[in-house]
């Protein structure tokens, strides 16, 4: 096909194929197609929004019909003509189109634009946009770098982009002060990478400790960046044990932070998320943490919160570590354990959430027991096996709320079991209180 000749629209081609009189008049098909096809006059950057390389090919091929100095004087204006002949317009469209492709993380489109519009500088705005969306594969393709890319990567929380930029283009004149300033304003890159468990980035930041980190007009970002203990908390909650250990060993990028922010709340939050290895390490590494010192207002003790979420392995760790800590404390000063580790709420909530293994473990390993809320909650949740186990192994029974709740939520098997297990006065031996209030059919 000749340069500048756009393939006819399929609908036009099919239409003329059925008309034998036009077989020897191919220009008729082309002319009708060009008349109907408005897509070739789309600005290139708007066409990128459709994410269609075929459409871009069509627009590009159409623009090739216009050659510099070959267009007749007085020819009508068209965007295709500008794209084909005006190098300033082409440069403008190149970067605007790249922005659209970068926003969509469309590497194939970026490569297409770079192959067609050669010789134009990729502006820093485009590189910055790639950093802001975390498009490392596109950054890898670019040959030109903007000095704002690093701080924008920090601003948008893309630690992987920050690490890539500094690894591949370390001499590009990045504004480290500006990047660290963003970190201090709620975009703390240490906390970000700790939450992701990115050991490579944490190690790089540790290595970079002596370079430029003491610079800056007010130095406020230095101490914020050095809050390694907060990074430990973030990593712990997300279960990244290796990241926690690294931050503990090099406890400050700023050199002055303490473990003040690593409290028992860190242990509780990690436990609630089921990270038994993290909980065990924290309790061993910070032996002075006391389960009675929770700073977050809550009516849950640590084991209450963990039991409600069914993390039996974490409960075992907490129980073991707490027993060992109590023993050491008694040997040292004869005092009893500090703070409440567990209450009856642990078994109540575990039963309500259907965690039978946790209920059994608490029954065998703790003395707090449960209340009637355990069976009531299990009934409301439809956990028949839990109800049956509680009936056989505890004496707290249930209230009228058990059958009421099971009925409201449609657990017929639970309603039947409660009905047939109790006798006429709502009791079965000494284990039951009245099981159901009169219901209206």
TrEMBL record:
SMART domains: ANK. This is Uncharacterized protein. Pfam families: Ank_4.
């Amino acid at each position: 096909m000749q340069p500048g000749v756009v393939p006819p629209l399929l609908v036009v081609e099919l239409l003329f194929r059925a008309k034998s009189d036009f077989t020897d008049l191919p220009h008729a098909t082309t002319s009708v197609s060009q008349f109907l096809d408005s897509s070739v006059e789309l600005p290139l950057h708007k066409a990128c929004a459709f994410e269609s390389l075929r459409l871009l090919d069509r627009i590009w091929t159409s623009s090739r019909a216009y050659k510099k100095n070959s267009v007749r004087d007085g020819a009508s204006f068209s965007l295709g003509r500008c794209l084909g002949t005006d190098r300033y317009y082409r440069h403008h469209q190149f970067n605007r189109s790249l922005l659209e492709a970068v926003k969509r993380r469309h590497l194939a489109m970026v490569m297409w634009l770079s192959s067609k519009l050669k010789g134009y500088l990729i502006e820093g705005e485009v590189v910055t946009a790639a950093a802001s969306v975390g498009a490392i594969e596109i950054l890898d393709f670019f040959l030109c770098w903007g000095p704002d890319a690093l701080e924008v990567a920090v601003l948008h929380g893309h630690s992987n982009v920050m690490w890539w930029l500094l690894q591949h283009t370390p001499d590009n004149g990045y504004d480290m002060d500006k990047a660290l300033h963003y970190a201090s304003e709620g975009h703390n890159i240490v906390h970000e990478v700790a939450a992701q468990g990115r050991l490579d980035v944490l190690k790089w930041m540790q290595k970079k400790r002596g370079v430029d980190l003491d610079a800056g007009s007010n130095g406020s970002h230095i101490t914020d960046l050095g809050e390694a203990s907060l990074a430990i908390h973030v990593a712990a909650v997300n279960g990244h044990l290796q990241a926690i250990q690294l931050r503990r060993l090099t406890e400050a990028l700023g050199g002055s932070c303490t473990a003040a922010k690593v409290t028992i709340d860190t242990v509780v939050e990690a436990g609630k998320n089921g990270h038994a290895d993290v909980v065990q390490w924290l309790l061993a590494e910070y032996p002075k943490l006391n389960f009675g010192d929770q700073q977050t207002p809550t009516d849950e003790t640590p084991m209450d919160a963990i039991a409600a979420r069914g993390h039996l392995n974490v409960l075992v760790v907490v129980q073991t570590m707490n027993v060992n800590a109590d023993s050491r404390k008694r040997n040292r000063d004869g005092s009893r354990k500090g703070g409440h580790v567990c209450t009856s709420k642990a078994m109540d909530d575990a039963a309500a959430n259907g965690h039978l293994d946790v209920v059994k473990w608490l029954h065998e390993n703790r003395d707090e027991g449960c209340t009637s809320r355990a069976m009531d909650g299990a009934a409301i949740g439809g956990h028949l096996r839990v109800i049956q186990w509680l009936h056989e192994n505890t004496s707290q029974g249930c209230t009228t709320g058990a059958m009421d709740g099971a009925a409201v939520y449609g657990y017929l098997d639970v309603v039947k079991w409660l009905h047939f297990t109790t006798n006429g006065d709502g009791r079965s031996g000494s284990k039951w209180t009245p099981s159901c209030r009169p219901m209206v059919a």
